[in-house]
Design a protein that fits this description.
This protein is mostly helical. The chain has a single domain, classed as 2-methylcitrate dehydratase PrpD, CATH 1.10.4100.10. 57% of the residues lie in helices and 4% in strands. A hairpin with a 2-residue loop joins β3 and β4. α4 packs antiparallel against α10, α6 packs across α8 and α9 packs antiparallel against α10.
């Protein structure tokens, strides 16, 4: 399908589909490896938090095939629920990594690694593919976040949750090998579910946001892989993500996708904090 080159969602989808390990500098992979080690560590620290145990009991109620590991608990759940649990655990103590996109802080690894790890375990993906998908999801989220105005966060949206859904969908789309049309739909399916209010900070819902963002991104890519459709301009379209959630497409940001890598701005924490 021919697309207007100015359409932001389509351009991002082309980056997601067209980028592989040969396009990514080796130093970017070194940053991704550090990010994974840090994410795994904070997940293991958060694995016994009450909200995590409640989510495991919820997964027991829901049932399903044993597809992916719940880290630190020696059990497997279906790939969607394993993603939810591990993502929530990794954000439970606010030790997970941070990047500031303009004035907006987000915690990207908690929304990316859970879905990518669960799918990689389920389908036996290689480590290089796993890390490549993380980098692509990370850069997609950074691009979208840099296009948001500070009002997005100031008005009460939890950016880790809103942006994280799209980032997770992007990484999963790459990992699954979706084509451009499927990837556009994956972004649309995730984008229409973008949510998460800062009003719940201090409750179990804040880390739940990270787990849900990762889970929604995974589910969006899985649905798109089966031909599930959505809007083709979820970001820039009328009543789309930028219009509703306080942002605008910025050529100086979108044009750098695949040329400038934001992951070197990712910071690991010495303390439990926003950043």
């Amino acid at each position: 399908m021919e697309r207007n080159q100015s359409e932001v969602t389509g351009r991002i989808a082309r980056f997601i589909v067209g980028t592989d390990a040969s396009n990514i500098p080796s130093v970017v992979y070194e940053h991704a490896k550090v990010a994974f080690l840090d994410w795994f560590a904070v997940t293991m620290v958060g694995k016994e938090e009450p909200l995590v145990l409640k989510l495991i009991r919820f997964a027991d109620l829901m049932g399903g095939d044993e597809q992916a590991t719940v880290l630190g608990h020696g059990v497997k759940k279906n790939v969607s629920l394993a993603t939810l649990i591990n993502g929530s655990a990794s954000h439970a103590l606010d030790y997970d990594d941070t990047i500031f996109l303009g004035d907006i802080p987000i915690h990207p690894s908690a929304t990316l690694f859970p879905s990518l790890l669960a799918f990689s375990e389920w389908k036996g993906k290689k480590g290089i593919d796993f890390l490549t998908a993380y980098i692509i999801g990370f850069e997609t989220g950074a691009c979208i976040g840099e296009c948001l105005d500070s009002e997005h966060y100031l008005d009460g949206w939890h950016a880790t949750s809103t942006i994280g859904r799209l980032a997770s969908a992007a990484g999963c789309a790459n990992l699954m090998g979706l084509d451009e049309n499927q990837t556009i739909y994956a972004l649309g399916i995730a984008g229409t579910q973008a949510s998460g209010l800062k009003r719940v900070f201090g409750s179990m819902c804040k880390p739940f946001h990270a787990g849900r963002a990762s889970q929604v991104g995974l589910e969006a890519a899985l649905l798109a892989s089966d031909g599930f459709t959505s809007a083709e301009d979820i970001l820039e379209g009328s009543a789309g993500f930028f219009k509703v959630l306080k942002g605008q497409a910025k050529e100086e940001v979108v044009g750098l996708l695949g040329k400038d890598w934001n992951i070197d701005r990712l910071a690991q924490k010495y303390h439990a904090s926003a950043g």
